[in-house]
Amino acid sequence: MKYVVFGSGGFAKEVIGYIESDVHEILCVVSTQPFNCESYNNKYKILNKLEVGMFPDAEFIMAVGDINIKKILVEQNENRWGNFIHSSCHVSNHAKLGVGITMCPFSAILGDSIVGDFVTFNVYSCVTHDNVIGNFITFSPYCGTMGYCTIDDDCFFGTAAYCIPKVKLGKGIKVSAGSVVRHSYMDQCVLLGNPAKPRS
Length: 200
What we know:
- The chain is of the alpha/beta class.
- The chain has three helices and 23 strands.
- The longest helix is centred in the N-terminal third of the chain and has 12 residues.
């Protein structure tokens, strides 16, 4: 595959490494900022933006974790977003996936779960069976949702944050690192602790 990678932050450096390890070709990187490491700057052409029709054979890969920046990039660019799923990942044949999904090594989408657009799965993150996952969601490393969870758009899970079965989260909720969500919350908030509660 031929990819155009969007982003030059720490997560983008990780995604580039995963793409390289699966022996795909990166045609360029799109970012308003250079990498903070010369080895990336010297290896890849970095463009501030893409003109319509550039690299017509390439798929666009989202390598940005920040939800708001993801949305800006989607608005500013053509709809040629592909999914990058590392070869070590598991995706069930019964799952349904949107576009713009990035799955880092050893992450998984199981059973018949439904995953929306522009969802990021960092290393060892997992969505189990009977989940409905919205759009523009970021799962940090070692986190996930158990069975029958419903997660609305724009939610963020910090490292090692989990939802137990049947939890529902409303739009824009942030789950702090290491937290375990045991109850449903629909109002936008930051959840913290075990059991996770809204941070005051």
